[in-house]
Amino acid sequence: MDKKEFSKLFDHTQLKPYASDDDIKKLCDEAKKYNFKTVAINNANIEKCKTYLKDTDILIDAAVSFPLGQCTLETKLFETKDAITKGAGELDYVINIAELKNGNYDYIKKEMEGIVNICKKAGVTSKVIFENCYLTNKEKIKLCKIANEVRPDFIKTSTGFGTGGAVLEDVLLMKKHSSSEIKIKAAGGIRTLENVQKFLEAGASRIGSSSGVKIMQQYDKIFNEK
Predict the structure, then answer these.
(1) Which residues lie below 8 Å from residue 58, measured CB to CB, with a gap of 6+?
(2) Rounded distance, CA 40 to CA 45, Å?
(3) Percentage of the chain with pLDDT > 90?
(4) pLDDT at position 130, please?
(5) Residue among 11, 61, 92, 153 flagged as catalytic
(6) C-alpha angle with apex 93: 167 to 121, nearest 5 degrees?
(7) What is the DSSP letter of 60?
(8) What is the pLDDT of residue 224?
(9) Kind of pairing between the strands at 206-209 and 183-187
(10) Which of the four pLDDT bands, split at 50, 70 and 90, describes residue 225?
């Protein structure tokens, strides 16, 4: 994989609640310098990023119902539409974890269908955040089966704001139980080139990280590409 292909694996992330305008501009400047796939941000920053990334192919990746997933379905659908209207080209939403725990699988499917359908109509990439640190393997597999019916573009391990982030065993499990047409995003605590390589080998095809610059610098050092 050459450097351009490698850099496009990354959603360059700044989701801290106290991120300033300077932090968001820095994120976008870094994304342009390293040619990342997206900047992953909270929705209040979409229009700022749209300005900073004008005339580039870098997409804005909006986080919906982040990080808890505990909005009503109506709120999530509105937030999805609003994010797309304001300029999001990709969208990551957190499932209603409580309803999954309640065994309310019809609700989880309805939620996923609603958000994914809005994204498909708009030509926007959809990613479903499982937040695996709170789930049993049985629940993760059930989510994969629901995703196989609904067909989001990606299923994703974590927000990075829970009690744990991405782990290789979860990616392997998600890969095993999901359709080959659904891609996997690993996110949460991925900070080194070595970690990235392990997650790619396990089956991930997108990486969410706030350490993208550091990882690209490690790539340059090892592969001597500037």
Answers:
(1) 28, 31, 32, 35, 36, 37, 38, 39
(2) 10
(3) 98
(4) 98
(5) 92
(6) 130
(7) E
(8) 74
(9) parallel
(10) low
Q: What's the CA gap between 42 and 198, in Å, rounded? A: 28
H or E element at residue 41: strand 38-42
Q: Is 8 a catalytic residue?
A: no
Strands, E, within 114-211: which ranges? 125-129, 154-156, 183-187, 206-209
Q: What is the pTM of this model?
A: 0.96
Q: Is 176 a catalytic residue?
A: no
Helix axes 73-86, 105-122, angle to 10 degrees: 20
Residue 7 in 3-state DSSP?
helix
Helices and strands in the chain, H and E counts: 10, 8
Domain architecture of the chain: domains with CATH: 3-223 (3.20.20.70)
- Give residue 35's identity as a one-letter amino acid code: N
Which residue among the candidates 37, 175, 183, 185 is catalytic per the annotation? 185
Instruction: Choose among 100, 94, 161: nearest CA to 126.
Output: 94
Task: Using the predicted structure, report yes or no on whether residue 81 has a pLDDT greater than 90.
Answer: yes
Model confidence pLDDT, tens digit, residues 157-201: 999 999 999 999 999 999 999 999 999 999 999 999 999 999 999
Q: Is 92 a catalytic residue?
A: yes
Nearest Cα residue to 70 out of 131, 14, 124, 16: 131
Query: In 58-216, where do the E strands start and end?
Result: 59-64, 90-94, 125-129, 154-156, 183-187, 206-209
Query: How many Cβ atoms from other residues are within 10 Å of residue 139's Cβ?
Result: 18
User: What span, in angstroms and rounded, lies between the C-alpha atoms of 51 and 100?
Assistant: 38
Catalytic, out of 156, 170, 175, 183: 156
